[in-house]
Amino acid sequence: MHDSVTTSTCPASVTGSPVTKVLRNLQLWFIADPATLAPAHDAPDRIEWSRVIPFVGMHLMCFAVIWVGVSPVAVLVTALAYLLRMFAITGFYHRYFSHRTFKTSRIAQFLFGVLGATAVQRGPIWWAAHHRHHHAVSDQPADPHSPEQHGFWRAHMGWFLTRHGFAPNLQRVRDLQRYPELRWLDRFDIAVPVLFAWGMLLLGKYLQRHHPELGTTGWQMLVWGFFISTVVCYHGTYTINSLAHVFGKQRYQTGDGSRNNWLLALITLGEGWHNNHHRYPASTRQGFYWWEIDITYYLLKMLSWLGIIWDLRAVPRAVRDGGVKAGNTLHHSSALTGIGEH
Ligand SMILES: [Zn+2]
Ligand SMILES: [Zn+2]
To answer: Which of 43, 55, 58, 319 lies 20 to 30 Å from 304, alpha-carbon distance?
Structure first.
């Protein structure tokens, strides 16, 4: 459904008077159904400032540490909130919704979407649509976040602040659009982060009241556990679009700028093996060898032991060992890799 909108000529957000446009954009902060957003043909690369105020505000709120201070427990909760949501983005938004590298139940699928939405990177349909498009046209002019084509800042974050970035190509996500609960998540993508932020505020208030020795408050936990951890998670995620197509080693001739970078793999729990990923996006595991640390994969493997997910897909040995660029000889026996263990 809604496929017809992808062929219309102009997004609703650019029609009418300037005041109407701003009001329409403010409304889209709260209700952003991708199905109602057509691709922007009118100045698609222009940043929509009235729509990106919440994104700017997320960053500005981090400066509230000046007033709320810091405590060890707030830093601990921030780290845990970062890890949980980075895993939700890499394990679910990326390896499940975008690439369907494993299977799960319909209930778990929805919960994965909810967990991913806490990272404030919009809904799973929007995320997957743009990401599938990236793979289809990687580092070509139509790739919205190619550093090669558009420079670092556009690849890092400029691309989704533009008119073009708001409207996903829904033709690429028909499989996900079949589920009304996922469409609901995309339509009200702000609901989940608001609840998550509220939970942080309540957690801080609870600790302040019952464990005053920890030295935290509701507002402190909100600033650290929600705003700071979200912004750090933002920029960690964005490095894969900006840096992982520039810095690192290219094991495979993939026809794009994707690289393998161990530091980015640590920051993003495994996504830094980006050249591997472009080589074979259908694999649940992105670290193709045992020494390529891929924490998301280890956590997904644990979920499979619990029976929550199944049919994790591996990279075929011929794919892994073929297409290797000159000068990238493989020194380790494939018997050590664990490939084929699924
Ligand atoms: Zn890429
Ligand atoms: Zn991908």
So the answer is: 319
| Residue given tokens 């919704």 in the structure block | 97
Distance 99 CA to ligand 2 centre (A): 7
Q: Locate the domains of the chain by residue range.
A: 54-242
**Nearest ligand (C-alpha, residue 137):** 1
Q: Compute, in angstroms, the gap from residue 208 CA to the centroid of ligand 2.
A: 42
Which residue(s) pair with 166 in the sheet? none
For Cα atoms 22, 23, 29, give the angle at the middle one, nearest 5 degrees: 95
The full DSSP string for 8-40 is: -SS-GGGSS-HHHHHHHHHHHHH---GGG----
In this structure, which residues have their CB less than 5 angstroms from ion ligand 1? 258
Pick out the chain residues at pLDDT < 50: 1-14, 329-342
Q: Are 226 and 196 in contact (CB under 8 A)?
A: yes
